[in-house]
C-alpha cells in the first residue's frame, strides 16, 4: 500500500472527522469483493491492511473438516496438519493468496471506497447540523425556481421552499437573500433534504426573538401566534416582570423593532396584544384595534359573545372576517361579535348583574356576598327585588346598604 493512501487517510481523519479505523474496515471489505470479482475466486477470503508497515495481504479461509464437500471452502484435517499439526476439526486455516498484480486493483478500489465514505460522512455531518436547527430560522439565497418549488441555498445544502410555504404576495428572484424557517430535515439518497417555510408562525416567533432582547432573555414571553402570512398576524405577549411593558418592548422606540419584522415579511401587518389568563380581558385585547364594550363568557363550550359599539362592528369583524378569525385563533375561544344595538335588543347588554359586583361598582358599599342591588345606570339607588334578578344564595335577612 502506498504511503500516499496512508497520508490521505490520516488527513481525512483530521479534516472530515472520519475515523481511520472505519475507513480501513471499509477498504478491507471492498478489497474482498474486488478480489473475488477480478480473479474469479469464490472462496472465503480476508484482507489484512497493516497501516504501520503499509502492507496489504489476502488470506484464504478454509474450515477444517473430516469430509470435504467444497474444496474452495473446506480442507481436510490431514491436509491442515501438514501446515500446522495443532489444527483440529472446526478450526479455520488461513493461507496467503495475495496476487502479484493486486496492488493496482487495490489502489483503485481503495480510492473509490474512500471517496464514497467521505461523501457519506459529509452528508451525515450536514444532516446532523441541520436536524439540530429544525424549528429555527436561517439566512438563505434563492438559487433557482420552478413552477412548484423555490430552491434556497443555505451554504452547505440546498433547501426546498414549497409553493404552499411561500408568501403569496412575495416575488422571489435568483440571488435574493431571504430568511426562512426550517420545518423538516430528512435523509435522502443524494444527501439530507431540508424543507423551509416563509409562512410558518414559527418564523414570526423567531424574528421577534432576534429583534426583542426581552423575549430572548425570557423576560417577555410570546404566548400565542395567529398568522395569515403576507396579510396580517396577531401575537399575544406576557411579561414575567411587572415593571416591563410586554407590548411596548415588542413595538420598540417609535416602532422600530416591529417595523424591522414587518419589512422582513414584505409589509405584513402585525398586531401585538397583551395576554391575560382572564378570557374576558384576553378576548377584548385580541380584537384590537376595535373597542370592546363587554365580553360574555360561556365556559362550557369555550365560547364568548363580544359587544362592540355600532360604528366599530365592521372593524371588529375585519375584512372578510379576518380580525375576528385571527382573534379566535389567538385566544382559542369561539368569538361571536354583536353590535351594541343588537345586544341591547337581545337583552344581553348592558348586564344588570355581575358575578363580580366590586368590579362594576367601586363607589358603592357592597355586602360580603354581593346581595345589594343597584340600577344599571350606576346611580347607586337601590332596586326592589322584583325589579331585578337576585344573586344566588342571597341571605333573606340582609339589610340594604346606603350609598
UniProtKB/TrEMBL annotation:
What is the annotated role of this protein in its UniProt record? Participates in both transcription termination and antitermination.
Q: Which GO terms describe its biological process?
A: DNA-templated transcription termination; transcription antitermination
Major localization class: cytoplasm
Compartments where found: Cytoplasm
Bias class Acidic residues marks the residues at: 355-403
Q: Which UniProt keywords apply?
A: Cytoplasm, RNA-binding, Transcription, Transcription antitermination, Transcription regulation, Transcription termination
Region Disordered, as annotated, extends over 351-403
InterPro entries this protein is in?
KH_dom (IPR004087), KH_dom-like_a/b (IPR015946), KH_NusA_2nd (IPR058582), KH_sf_prok-type (IPR009019), NA-bd_OB-fold (IPR012340), NusA_N_sf (IPR036555), S1_domain (IPR003029), TF_NusA (IPR010213)
Family, similarity comment: Belongs to the NusA family.
User: By its UniProt entry, which SUPFAM superfamilies does this protein fall under?
Assistant: Nucleic acid-binding proteins, Prokaryotic type KH domain (KH-domain type II), Transcription factor NusA, N-terminal domain
Organism of this sequence: Bhargavaea cecembensis DSE10
The S1 motif domain extends over 135-199
User: Which lineage?
Assistant: Bacteria, Bacillati, Bacillota, Bacilli, Bacillales
Q: How does it assemble?
A: Monomer. Binds directly to the core enzyme of the DNA-dependent RNA polymerase and to nascent RNA.
List, in alphabetical order, the Gene Ontology terms for molecular function in this entry.
DNA-binding transcription factor activity; RNA binding
Q: What is this protein called?
A: Transcription termination/antitermination protein NusA
Listed under GO cellular component are: cytosol
Q: Which domain of life is it from?
A: Bacteria
